[in-house]
Design brief:
The structure is a homotrimer. Chain A is of the alpha/beta class. In chain A, strand 22 and strand 23 form a beta hairpin. Chain A is flat, with a radius of gyration of 29 Å. The relative contact order of chain A is 0.06. Chains in contact: A-B, A-C, B-C. At the A-B interface, helix 3 and helix 5 of A face strand 21, strand 22, strand 23, helix 4 and helix 5 of B.
Chain lengths: 362, 362, 362
């Protein structure tokens, strides 16, 4: 919970030390919060990284600006904090002014914790949170109202489970995992075998679990299905946005990024440092190589090599896709041209065959 | 909560007065409910606006039909309520027969309201609803079971928060806001800065809030992320369908419509009266002009001018897209034709150059 | 809840009898669980159906393998259970080793059941589950923590409602229905009529209900909207994956499959045995014929005939789509070719018109 009341004043120089940057201007300038360019005031530091917002930079009343050396010349006489990675610096400075406030530890009288659950005394279990039999909640973890952790599930240390998030039976969360509101970990995988005699889709037991490694964040209303057998895995440091679907037996490597409304079908393996754009769909049983980047809304039906950037549906290399997409925008025109060409060629073909060239004899 | 038991009989004339329409037939006809064409009976008024359903109109046993003047001739001798905007008239008539039933005010003994929260005495807080410290619930608002309103959040007057909906800390709901079940307001925006030294995605604090203006409705399992700094805003009278993603720092103008599973990326501004079709994706940092309409599944990567109708991915003007999409459906054929043309042209090129025309001399 | 502690040893012969298969090898081999090829040990039976995983088959230490007769030769000397439909056999064998464990019946002291609700004594209502006035919970049904069943809703026999799932007022669930976590049944349909005088989107009352027939499963965070009037229907035995949107007045036939993140717009009728791939979007007021298959990410804007396989957006017959999609991948090249052809034809056209062939007269 980032809250407004938690600010302490620092100097611009303090902030530069924190982020390994350099002050141009008055290093003793007092700063007591970060603020967006458009609403910042003199005691605020703001942040500039996208030249689309140059006008906001020109108009801002911020006391100081965090920006990259190559953008330093864009700012007028104002104090600046020059740093190689302004976004990272901004993250660190903002975290300084908006520390996560730990609620008081303990189990609320309106919570329900099974007598055989194991909740660390430093953990917080808020009203209407439920912890099942033999479930384990690690040190300093926080369960907000409506959170459900079913039997034999394990939540590591320093986890934050926002309202109405749920972890079904036997699933495992590492340390420092964050679940946004109504995120679901451990729902049944979507597995049915059609029985032609009984005329029914027979449910395949989803007897496996989900294992979420350390430092993962899972977005609001995102769903990670438990494995049919074995484990669905989300690797350490991977971040998943809202409304994302991760199907059973998917394995996602560390440090990947899945943007909003992306979907990954069953048994697909996603490497390390992969980025899936918004609304991307990945078919099942595929391998997506390390550091592959898949553009928004792409539909991936084949393996993707490491370091590739893909787009389109069916997806392929990004550059070709955009070249073809540009061509698509004059496709109707192209059809017309081809029709005209056919007519012209037909006309040419009608012409009499000319005789082989020879000396004309008088 | 619309319920079956709330009907009172009116005459068709009463209904015409309510909606500013004109009766053709017996204005004293008693009507005690609205019903679909296929199941309506003599004491029901039904509604016709889509000629696709002409057969249902022919077969209906409804006592009366609401329809537009231009469709009046489609109905036989039956009583009709002729009105310029039949769908709007239907909405008003249906609301008459299905009034929202306010539950009794008060805080259920199974609810949990922080002693320092401020719940209006006319509000209703049902079992297992949670209201945090310094949160405020306005007059006549209703929190259904499992609803969570975190600390310092504000819910206006006459709001209806359906089961398991949540509003995170400090977020603001105006008056007459409706949250469908499991809607999420105020989840963290998806912001991470990669730290190449620590080899981790560092979380950018999402210290801002969400502000939902008056008369907004947000669908089931839809998510509106809080701003990194400042506010994510949903403008007055805007309606959001189910499973929609609204990212951090998005600003949506008044009276817009976002259909199911649409997604809007961070910092994009959406104007007034905009319509996003189902599964539309909008990239970040864009401006979508007032009254723009984006067709279902479009992928928008550039600004959209006001009043434009766009489609496709990457999206562009709707008419061109559909012309090109039609052409796409014979693209394989086009490839064949071009191959044939190449062969024909090559053949023509092989022919000897003919001489300039001149009088043939014998 | 499938749990690890529930295993009993069987012989491979027992399993063959259960699934109507044939043992090749030692029928007395003791088996006490199913396991994936990669982690199976000697007392496990594993399952092989996808030749993509042939290497795992070669390396597995499983005591026995379930596979189809045509794959029998792929396995070495190991015991095999040969059966026509290995996936169905696997489902049955896995269910044997992972029976659903019924929790003890009764209403938890932390649950909230309206005194006028009707909960069968064999049903289970766990902590923080809510059952409203005149709601009915049938025999052996289980409501997990955070489940909400609003007033006058009906849940049949042997249903399983996972954590934080909800059923709004008056909606109906048949027997053996499963709701995954945070699934929503009965949210308001998305219906508004624009009132140009009041400048507002007037809410059309969503006075109907949802009827979920027997043996339906609905995925995590999936939403089925209640009808404007009448019923939204999900037919018997249909299975819906996670994050799927089913709009108001949709009618889905029996035994259909809706994969993750698919969306169906209002009043569309989906037949029996239809399959919608992941992220498919279907426009409103359409008919999708029995057994139609719609490929992932397709956008359907017209009726689809029975037994058709469609793909693309706008969608059409699958084979044409893929032929055209292949052509799309060389579209930029095609544009270049057409430009060259135009130049070549223009060059040819510049040549003098030759005379019609005739006998040359001296």
């Amino acid at each position: 919970m980032a809250a407004e009341g938690s600010k302490r004043t620092r100097t611009l120089g303090d902030l530069a030390d924190l982020v390994g940057g350099r002050v141009r201007g008055d290093a003793s300038l007092p700063i007591d919060d970060v603020a967006p360019l458009e609403s910042a005031e003199g005691r605020h530091v703001s942040f500039f990284a996208n030249r689309r917002y140059k006008k906001l930079l020109d108009a801002t009343r911020a006391g100081a600006i965090i920006l990259a050396p190559e953008d330093a010349s864009l700012s007028d006489g104002r104090a600046i904090l020059e740093v190689k990675n302004p976004y990272l610096a901004f993250a660190k400075v903002s975290a300084l002014f908006h520390p996560v406030q730990a609620p008081s530890p303990g189990i609320d009288s309106h919570a329900c914790v099974h007598p055989e659950a194991d909740v660390d005394p430093s953990a917080t279990v808020m009203a209407f949170a439920y912890v099942g039999r033999h479930a384990r909640i690690g040190p300093h973890s926080v369960l907000h109202p409506g959170v459900v952790v079913m039997e034999e599930a394990r939540v590591g240390a320093h986890c934050l489970l926002h309202v109405n998030a749920s972890v079904r039976e036997r699933c495992i969360l590492g340390d420092r995992v964050i679940l946004q509101p109504s995120a679901v970990v451990g729902s049944d995988g979507f597995g049915f075998a059609f029985d032609p005699e009984a005329l029914s889709h027979v449910k395949v037991p989803q007897a496996g679990i989900v294992r979420i490694e350390d430092d993962v964040e899972i977005g609001a209303c995102s769903c990670v299905d438990r494995a049919t057998l074995g484990e669905t895995v989300v690797g350490a440091g991977t971040k998943i946005d809202n409304l994302v679907q991760v199907a059973h037996n998917v394995r996602i490597g560390p440090l990947s990024i899945l943007c909003g409304q992306a979907g990954v079908s069953g048994s697909t393996q996603i490497g390390a440092g992969v980025v899936l754009g918004g609304q991307v769909g990945i078919a099942g049983h595929l391998d997506i190589g390390d550091r592959a980047k898949i553009a928004a809304q792409a539909g991936v039906h084949t393996n993707v090599p490491a370091d590739a950037t893909w787009a389109g549906a069916p997806a392929g290399p990004h550059r070709e896709f955009f070249r073809n997409a540009v061509a698509f925008n004059r496709l109707a025109q192209l059809v017309t041209e081809v029709r005209e060409l056919r007519a012209a060629v037909a006309e040419l073909q009608k012409k009499p065959a000319t005789k082989p060239r020879r000396k004309s004899k008088p």
